[in-house]
Amino acid sequence: MGGLNDSVVNEFVLLALSCSWEKRLFLILICSLLYLGVILGNLFILFLVIFDSHLHSPMYFLLANLSLIDVGLSSTTVPKIITDLFNEDKIISFQSCMTQICFIHTIGGVEMVLLIAMAFDRCTAICKPLHYLKIMNPKICVSFVITGWVIGVIHAMSQFLFVIKLPFCGPNEVDSFYCDFPKIIKLACTDGAKLEFIVTANSGFMSMGTFFLLILSYSFILVTVWKRSSGDLSKAFVTLSSHITVVFLFFTPCMFLYVWPSPPPSLDKNLFIVDFAITPVLNPAIYTLRNKDIKVAIKRLLKKIFYSRFC
């Protein structure tokens, strides 16, 4: 990494983690519980979809991939935060900072494509039910996932290649819990206005464009159902409410962080918690509480466990 960037700065200090020991203990407890929920909840969904043959359908294939991505997204930042809270010096090396940024934007790009794929899946299931299995065949589902990773890598690298060449000669203090392009660019010893525009154009417009595309697709589904069912949208709302909730939870922080040039530090920190801890831990609950197939699959699993132990 040093060969690509002859920076004087070789580490960054995360100021957001500098607080009293009592507050740090509270943050350790909260972050640990949230991360445990992310791991257990999402891996349980992944396990359920893999081992229950009744869930081997396009919708649940995409949901399992989303759960895996949520684990990855949370794991890029939360474990590092928990570790730093135990230490007096909240330091991250230049190499680790750049790696963290790349993983965040790669995984974030994959999640955006997966959410689009899930919207397309619901649109096909509701608007063209007779052709659903033909359209959403296994090859298409795998293509969505592969496309997500390709776009995610391109999205991350298109910004990373600019940032890695910036000279960093001080200061090296980041008022946040983690590294990200907008925060690191401001520390460069050069005019970062053009690069800030590139980040906004890339991450900001990508977030906004994907968000509005998803809202339009779900609106189209609701209008289609309304026309077919003489104004009765209750079933459609039940089916789509979980998807729409996840879209708002994921994209609202993204749009604030990347479209707003300089959000207040307090807002930035709160949005970070939503995007990297709360949304990943809520996704399993959101997709299971109103999902009959998942509930039935859980009952089948519990019965198997019960009979294997007591019969």
Summarize the structure in words.
- Keywords: Cell membrane, Disulfide bond, G-protein coupled receptor, Membrane, Olfaction, Receptor, Sensory transduction, Transducer, Transmembrane, Transmembrane helix.
- Pfam families: 7tm_4.
- Putative odorant or sperm cell receptor.
- There is one protein chain.
- The protein has 311 residues and is mainly alpha-helical.
- The chain has a single domain (12-309), classed as Rhodopsin 7-helix transmembrane proteins (Rhopdopsin 7-helix transmembrane proteins, Up-down Bundle), CATH 1.20.1070.
- The chain contains 11 helices and 3 strands.
- It has helices spanning 21-51, 58-75, 78-86, 94-127, 132-135, 138-163, 181-185, 193-228, 234-259, 265-289, 292-310, and strands at residues 11-14, 91-93, 173-174.
- A 3-stranded mixed β-sheet has the order 2-1-3.
- α2 (58-75) packs antiparallel against α10.
- It is globular, with a radius of gyration of 21 Å.
- The model has no long low-confidence stretch (mean pLDDT 84).
Please outline what is shown here:
This protein is mainly alpha-helical.
How is the topology of this model organized?
Layout: E1 11-14, H1 21-51, H2 58-75, H3 78-86, E2 91-93, H4 94-127, H5 132-135, H6 138-163, E3 173-174, H7 181-185, H8 193-228, H9 234-259, H10 265-289, H11 292-310
Parallel strand pairs: 1-3
Antiparallel strand pairs: 1-2
Helix pairs in contact: 1-2, 1-3, 1-10, 2-4, 2-10, 4-6, 4-8, 6-8, 8-9, 9-10
